[in-house]
């Protein structure tokens, strides 16, 4: 393992997680939970297969990730974060919040995955009336569907569709993310191509107006 050779907690942390792709692998494991190698590779567009294998091995040696054998009928190797690895969740959340202003414009060649919405959803959206029945909002973005839903006073996002969503949003990633982080109002997002179906009450409940 390369080291900065400094007796400093920040330097020692970067000795472990400062290599290129490492924190993004941790992001995937945080968002997906235990998952297959192929799922990780799909969530990390641009990573070389051998580099992903090397980084996973480094994370295992640092006791931040572990592998387990899934029972039949899956019968494949799954990778998951250890308790120590999961402690990096606030770090990823803080980095995401710090990086949000950098996402005002998207480059043409930049990839996007729908499940990445889970970070801005958890960071910026709040259930302002948690005593009321839960709501769900289906978000169609970049040819993927994600459900934003309230549960036990929290707001979370998961891949998939909702059978009967309270509202449906369809738009480009920069518009959807801009709306969720508060950079765009609902009217501004609509002016930039966001389509809204259903009532806007569910949106207002999450502080989107």
What does the model show?
This protein has helices at 9-17, 22-32, 37-42, 49-61, 83-86, 89-99, 118-124, 173-180, 186-191, 201-205, and strands at residues 35-36, 65-69, 77-81, 136-141, 144-151, 154-159, 167-170, 195-198. With 209 residues, it is an alpha+beta fold. It folds into 2 domains: 9-87, Arc Repressor Mutant, subunit A (Orthogonal Bundle), CATH 1.10.10.10; 114-205, SCP2 sterol-binding domain (Nonspecific Lipid-transfer Protein, Chain A, 2-Layer Sandwich). It is globular and about 55 Å long. The mean pLDDT is 95.
The percent range for helix content is: 25-40%
Tell me, rounded to a whole number, the average pLDDT: 95
What CATH architecture of the largest domain would you give? 2-Layer Sandwich
* SSE order: HHEHHEEHHHEEEEHHEH
**What is the total tally of β strands?**
8
Strand order of the largest sheet: 6-5-4-7-8
By DSSP (H or I, 4+ residues per run), the number of helices equals: 10
């Amino acid at each position: 393992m390369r080291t900065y050779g400094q007796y400093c907690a920040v330097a020692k942390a970067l000795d472990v997680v400062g290599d290129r792709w490492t924190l993004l692998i941790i992001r995937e494991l945080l968002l997906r939970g235990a998952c297959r190698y192929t799922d990780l590779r799909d969530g990390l567009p641009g990573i070389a297969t051998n580099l992903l294998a090397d980084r996973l091995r480094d994370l295992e040696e640092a006791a931040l990730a572990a592998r387990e054998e899934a029972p039949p009928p899956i019968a494949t190797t799954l990778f998951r974060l250890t308790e120590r690895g999961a402690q990096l969740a606030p770090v990823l959340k803080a980095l995401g919040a710090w990086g949000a202003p950098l996402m005002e414009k998207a480059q043409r060649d930049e990839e996007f995955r729908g499940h990445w919405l889970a970070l801005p959803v958890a960071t910026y959206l709040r259930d302002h009336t948690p005593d009321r029945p839960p709501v769900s909002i289906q978000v169609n973005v970049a040819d993927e569907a994600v459900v934003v839903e309230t549960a036990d006073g929290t707001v979370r996002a998961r891949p998939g569709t909702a059978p009967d969503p309270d509202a449906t949003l369809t738009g480009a990633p920069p518009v959807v993310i801009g709306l969720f982080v508060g950079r765009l109002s609902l009217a501004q997002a609509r002016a930039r191509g966001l389509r809204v179906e259903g009532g806007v009450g569910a949106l207002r409940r999450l502080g989107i107006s």
